[in-house]
Amino acid sequence: MSKNCFKFSLAVLLLIITFIYSMTSGISDISVVMTLKSLFSKVDDNTYTIINKIRFPRVFLAVIAGAGLSASGCVFQGILRNPLADPFTLGISGGAAFGASVGFVLGMASVSWIFLPLFAFTGAMMSICLVYSLNVKKEFDSNGMILSGVVASYIFSSAVLLIFAILSSDQLYSAFMWLMGNLSSFDERLLPVITAVIVAGIIILCLFGNVINIITLGHEKASSLGVNTTKTVKYIFLLSSLMTALIVSCCGVIGFVGLMIPHITRKFVGNDHRVLIPMSVLAGAIFLPLCDALSRILFAPVEIPIGVITSIVGGIFFMFLLLKPSGKITL
Questions:
Q1: Domain regions of the chain by residue span
Q2: Is the pLDDT at 139 greater than 70, yes or no?
Q3: What pTM did the predictor assign?
Q4: Span 2-322: which CATH code?
């Protein structure tokens, strides 16, 4: 218990340091002292605008998105008992990409700030409904869920490519940047909504930690211990999917976070989801702001989409994971 308290305390400290570092990083380098002053009092107009109006909402969104994606990925891997389960492989991101692409075709991005996230969210929910309907009679079989997610991803990806063929050059660039994950186009008016939903969802998922531990033992053992696995998995799946859909609709497609972070966290705290879920939340909240800071400073003043950074890091991580002597990816 004391070891876990130390690890949580260290993770919270790293989160604070990461948050401040991400606030200071960018085309305009601002010192830590000036950053902290700008948060609590108005210094000069330029610094105040950069910190409070641009960087703080963006970094805060990265924290929330990283935490939500990591929690969802951790839970998906647990309830489906598959180390490759995550929001990306379950087709949620593909559905959001399709919805956003339709929004770009219809010119919704220029009509109102709310329409593009709304279209993306609708697309994500369509994908969730498709995956759910294909498995509702199979009691959420793990392999069936993953296969259904892959099928949904291929269907929506093909539809996105078809839409790209009819987009104008300006629309194509905007859509392409969104699909690669982009925090710069986020409207801060959505921040209170996404924060409230993600925080509430994380709290609920953490409360289900012991139940998820039982589910990982298998349906028969879980049933013998009094857990209605089909009903419980359904509720947890829908809640995690809703969280992911909301994040992707606001931030674009950010891959590998929900897949990679639980794997890394599991090496430090083990498989107990009562500890693993909240630690994954903190790890994701640290990882994504770091990726966002890197996307802003790596080729400044050109900004790289954050989804590119997470995909590169995730790809390298799993390459090394597969090169281990065991050559296995396990829970």
A1: 2-322
A2: no
A3: 0.90
A4: 1.10.3470.10
